[in-house]
Amino acid sequence: MVATMGGGPQGGAATVFVGGGNMARALIGGLVRDGGSTTPVHVIEPGEPARRSLAGFAGVRAWASAEALLEGAGAGFRPGLVVWAVKPQVFAAAAVPCRPFTAAALHLSVMAGVTSHAIEQATGSARIVRAMPNTPALIGQGIAGLCARPEVDAAGRAAVQALLAPTGQTLWVGEEPLLDAVTALSGSGPAYVFYVIEAMVEAGVQMGLPAPDARRLAEATCAGAAALSMQSEEPVAVLRERVTSPGGTTFAALQSLRTDGVAAAFVRALHAARDRAEELGRGG
Ligand SMILES: NC(=O)c1ccc[n+]([C@@H]2O[C@H](COP(=O)([O-])OP(=O)(O)OC[C@H]3O[C@@H](n4cnc5c(N)ncnc54)[C@H](OP(=O)(O)O)[C@@H]3O)[C@@H](O)[C@H]2O)c1
Asked: What residue owns the CA closest to ligand 1's atom 37?
């Protein structure tokens, strides 16, 4: 349930999503989960199939354009919260027709690499929270890094956190550039885990396991190890050492990983992702 916020003569408590794709649907699904949002939810989404599927959510109205929304809701329409869920490269163009209702609103952006400065320029509002979610959000098991501009008050932070809660965990970071590190670690992170699962499955199949069995073993191992780590107070290295008896099978595998420099390669990979996020933020 999203908290309401002041913000204008009509529709002050309304939430507008700009972009109704995967990430928006994960957030809207959470918003309406307990029988629908108590406040109006509007989505601007040019794609007709996406609009049709959004219309299935209780209390959600999907519009083909900002102009259509303004025509339907009235020129005095002032939503409390605007959620930016379009691809970063279409943000600037998508923001132009929204300008009549953005200056007074709180903004939540889930777009990778679009700075709060760029959002302020395009919307006329400095009340901005940037979030970096990840794909497990689609099944309520994501983690989103969040960073708020100083202009966002405690109520604004709480409203954004409530909106994201159904998608999983949230973690506030103190400075906006740290969101590039969050992007490199948890934003892109599911791909690294899938990469490890793929390699484990490939090895299992090479050693004679049927592919579905190898996949099940690899998936359950990654999920179980992460759950054990989350429940433990011990450093992760201690958990690793506990399953690594000297001269044993795990020892042999870890020696091989060390010889191949796998940990250092992972660290370099995350730096590459962070550098790319910074570049995208500069418009590259
Ligand atoms: N998916 C993730 O796991 C994830 C994780 C972290 C961050 N993000 C961020 O979330 C944002 C959305 O990602 P997504 O995966 O949800 O992408 P997506 O599924 O492609 O959704 C974006 C939607 O925006 C629509 N759109 C295009 N131009 C528009 C406009 N001018 N006005 C309104 N809507 C417009 C697109 O419609 P058409 O398809 O018809 O063009 C599409 O349905 C991105 O900025 C991404 O960086 C996503």
From this structure: 47
| Euclidean distance between CA atoms 219 and 212, whole angstroms | 11
The number of the ligand 1 atom at minimal distance from the alpha carbon of 138 is 3
* Contact (Cβ atoms closer than 8 angstroms) between residue 130 and residue 146: yes
CA of 72 to the centre of ligand 1 (A): 23
Question: Is residue 105 a contact partner of residue 125, using CB atoms and an 8 Å limit?
Answer: yes
How much distance in Å is there from the Cα of 133 to the middle of ligand 1? 13
From CA 229, how far away is CA 236, in angstroms rounded? Answer: 7
Ligand 1 centre and the CA of 80: distance in Å? 21
CA of 19 to the centre of ligand 1 (A): 6
Ligand 1 contacts (CB < 6 A) are 18-24, 44-47, 50, 85-88, 90, 93-94, 110-112, 132-135, 187
Task: Give the ranges where the chain is alpha helix by DSSP (H).
Answer: 22-31, 48-54, 66-73, 91-95, 99-102, 116-123, 154-164, 178-182, 189-206, 211-231, 236-242, 249-259, 262-281
pTM of the model: 0.89
* Kind and range of the H or E run holding 142: strand 142-148
pLDDT in tens, the chain (284 residues): 343 343 333 345 899 999 999 999 989 988 887 666 778 999 999 999 999 999 888 889 999 999 999 999 987 899 999 999 999 999 999 999 999 999 999 999 999 889 999 999 999 999 999 999 999 998 999 999 999 999 999 999 999 999 999 899 999 999 999 999 999 999 999 999 999 999 999 999 999 999 999 999 999 999 999 999 999 999 999 999 999 999 999 999 999 999 999 999 999 999 999 999 888 888 76
